[in-house]
Amino acid sequence: MIVRTLRLYEFRNYASAALSFADGLNVFVGKNAQGKTNLLEAVYYAGSLRSFRSSKETDLIRWGAREARVDIEFTRDEQPNQLQIKIPDQGKRSACWNEQPVKKLTDLVGRLMTVSFITQDLLLVKGDPADRRRFLDNELSNLNHRYFYSFFQYRRCLEQRNKVLKLHAEGRGGLETLPEWSHQLAKYGARLFMTRSRFLQDLNLRVSPVHQALTGDSETVQLSYQPGISVQEPPETEEAWQQAFEEAIHKVQKNEIHRATTLLGPHRDDFQIVIDGKDARQFASQGQQRTCALGLKLAELTFVEAALKEPPIVLLDDVFSDLDPDRRKSLMAFLEPRSQTFITCTELASFQKKTLKGAHIYHVQGGSVSDGA
Ligand SMILES: Nc1ncnc2c1ncn2[C@@H]1O[C@H](COP(=O)(O)OP(=O)(O)OP(=O)(O)O)[C@@H](O)[C@H]1O
Ligand SMILES: [Mg+2]
Asked: Is 320:164 a contact under the CB 8 Å cutoff?
């Protein structure tokens, strides 16, 4: 997958910008607060239809403007594609795919596949379970439409079920619909359990070699899924997950009625990261956390590459400031042969001269971009 051009109108601090890109490495260099991360965000947005940092879509519109627009041209399977998304300050966003208006925008999610590493990803290691669930949901939603759909259905069922329990606790409703909501919850929940479990098993096989390539030492990293229901062994099929979930709900239902909330399910999932036998959440040093989070993202890159049979676009925000020169070198060696990479930095001296050979360099200043070394 290769991004050929990106055009922005009234997007973040860009009144307008038009950029074309090289196949390999593209570097956005500039001082703080000039608009480097905003460029990565625009590419990410075109792939995921959400920002990697704000949940409010209208934050993307340049202050004082009425509408933001992102136009992107990219190849996938060597086919050229064109995507245009408009985000108005009021009303719904709209999109055109190869010049045709798109009815359901969520169909566009994952057409442009990106793997990104931003500061927030450090929370993967030391953050809350919700941070790790966000990682699973974001990655799996982009890759798998059934997961994306099931995720929304699960959230809807969970809200409805909690509402029934709450109204009952307040003496304002009965429990007649509870069994049906429990059934629906287990159906969609089982899909999330199954997909997350498989993904983590696969990622677990990938993460140690990537981590070792990055660090040059032999630390092993292990991921283990901690589903939000207790199971001795993770079930192997969706049906078995559904059955296990239904049984678990049955066991805690009395307590749920008493507490007026849904106590078990994928909304309580987590996964543990273990480095050389020690729980990373508790024991990892600052450097280990950074390398480990980056290793997870690169393992995900190899996963996506295998699933798509071509490398996704890599977006790295200010990653060098976290890494020593050897790790920088290893990172670039890992990425170079595979992906078109967009990387932000505040000074080009962070790169080895060799790495910058053939790279496309963009100087970013106050919401404008100039091309050239
Ligand atoms: N909706 C918006 N309209 C106008 N400007 C915005 C909007 N959202 C953010 N900005 C501004 O864009 C500027 C650049 O942001 P960005 O995060 O891209 O900087 P950066 O170059 O990555 O800086 P750093 O090196 O500090 O990470 C910030 O000063 C921010 O205030
Ligand atoms: Mg930035």
From this structure: no
Listed in sequence order, the residues at least 6 apart from 95 whose beta carbon sits closer than 8 Å to its beta carbon are 83, 84, 85, 86, 101, 102, 105, 108
308-345 pLDDT, tens digit per residue, is 999 999 999 999 887 888 899 999 999 988 899 999 99
Q: How far is the CA of 118 from the centre of ligand 2 (A)?
A: 9
Query: Which protein residues touch ligand 1 with a CB less than 6 Å away?
Result: 12-13, 30, 32-38, 59, 61-63, 318, 344, 346
Residues 22 and 16 sit within 8 Å (Cβ to Cβ): no
- Residue written as token pair 């070198």: 329
- Please give the CATH number for the structural domain made up of 127-204+216-284: 1.20.1050.90
Tell which one of 31, 38, 43, 66 to mutate to probe ligand 1, the residue whose CB is within 8 A of the most ligand atoms. 38
Q: What would the two tokens of residue 270 be?
A: 């987590």
Query: Could you give phi then psi for residue 283, rounded to 5 degrees?
Result: -110, -15
DSSP state of 62: P
Q: What span, in angstroms and rounded, lies between the C-alpha atoms of 191 and 240?
A: 11
Q: Which residues partner with 3 through β-bridges? A: 74
Give the pTM: 0.94
Cβ atoms within 10 A of the Cβ of 216, count? 11
* pLDDT tens track for 2-49: 999 999 999 999 999 999 998 999 999 999 999 999 999 999 999 999
301 CA distance to ligand 2 centroid (A)? Answer: 22
CATH of 1-113+312-373, one of 3.40.50.150, 3.40.50.2300, 3.40.50.2000, 3.40.50.300: 3.40.50.300
